[in-house]
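testing teh design pipeline on a random one, pls ignore if ur not involved
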């Protein structure tokens, strides 16, 4: 493949150049990107064609490969290392509790903090220490689009800033709450790295104890969120929108709890991703009146 080498930060600009071969995809390795070049334009390298990868599925978080599902074989790990050259390979057996602690096994390399680039933002985390749900990519994009500048938003389960960063970037004033002190440390770093200090108030602790005042929007990005819904309602008003994440349908329960709190709730539901057999991660958008 005929390519030009650019820094990862310059990739977006390179994708708009006249010389770009739009029939091919760029190849990214570490901090460098190799961008395909059309015939008739100068190149820096002619890379050998890569054979399609047909091995075990995995996710890249920064330079770390994360494997879900059944524990991989040594041959599957070796194939991933040969194909993608990750600095580390982790097996994620599951996520535990309200603090969302990952149960991981190191299969290759050494775990370390990485910078994961997504939607123009930088998220620092160590995948062996804290969770990063790549299946929620479209939901993170959506939270950045629905925000009206100046909204007061409660992010009750902020994690490392999955939703806080795009919402604050869109102009919201975000109260970001996170109970896990390790995740909270990365949340603070990601607020700083994305230059959002003036738009986010981060606090470490139980969100039920930290909520204060009334919010225009509440994000509840945790599978245990239905059990915290009453706390969110106590800090809502007519017009507040609550984004309630759940495993399975919690719409009827949300409507009943809103009624008990003196509201009428209009609920719309969308599926985010399949979590297991007949089980979906859903988001209920609850508009209070």
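output:
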């Amino acid at each position: 493949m005929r390519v030009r080498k650019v820094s990862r930060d310059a990739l977006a600009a390179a994708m708009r150049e006249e010389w770009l071969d739009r029939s091919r995809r760029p190849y990214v390795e570490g901090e460098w990107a190799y961008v395909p070049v059309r015939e008739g334009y100068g190149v820096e390298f002619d890379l050998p064609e890569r054979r399609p990868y047909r091995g075990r599925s995995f996710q890249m978080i920064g330079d770390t490969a994360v494997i879900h599902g059944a524990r991989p074989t040594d041959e599957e790990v070796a194939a991933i290392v040969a194909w993608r050259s990750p600095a580390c390979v982790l097996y994620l057996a599951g996520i535990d509790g309200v603090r969302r602690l990952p149960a991981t096994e190191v299969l290759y390399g050494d775990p370390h903090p990485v910078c994961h680039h997504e939607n123009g933002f930088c998220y620092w985390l160590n995948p062996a220490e804290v969770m990063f749900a790549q299946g929620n990519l479209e939901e993170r994009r959506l939270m950045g689009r629905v925000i009206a500048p100046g909204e007061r938003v409660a992010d009750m389960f902020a994690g490392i800033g999955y939703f806080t960063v795009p919402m604050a970037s869109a102009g919201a004033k975000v109260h970001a709450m996170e109970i896990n002190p390790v995740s909270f440390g990365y949340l603070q770093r990601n607020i700083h790295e994305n230059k959002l200090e003036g738009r986010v108030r981060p606090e470490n602790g139980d969100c039920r104890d930290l909520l204060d005042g009334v919010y225009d929007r509440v994000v509840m990005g945790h599978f245990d969120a239905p059990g915290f819904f009453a706390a969110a309602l106590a800090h809502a008003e007519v017009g507040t929108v609550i984004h309630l994440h759940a495993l399975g349908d919690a719409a009827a329960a949300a409507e009943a709890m809103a009624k008990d709190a003196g509201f009428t709730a209009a609920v719309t539901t969308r599926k985010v991703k399949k979590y297991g057999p007949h089980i979906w991660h859903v988001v209920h958008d609850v508009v209070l009146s």
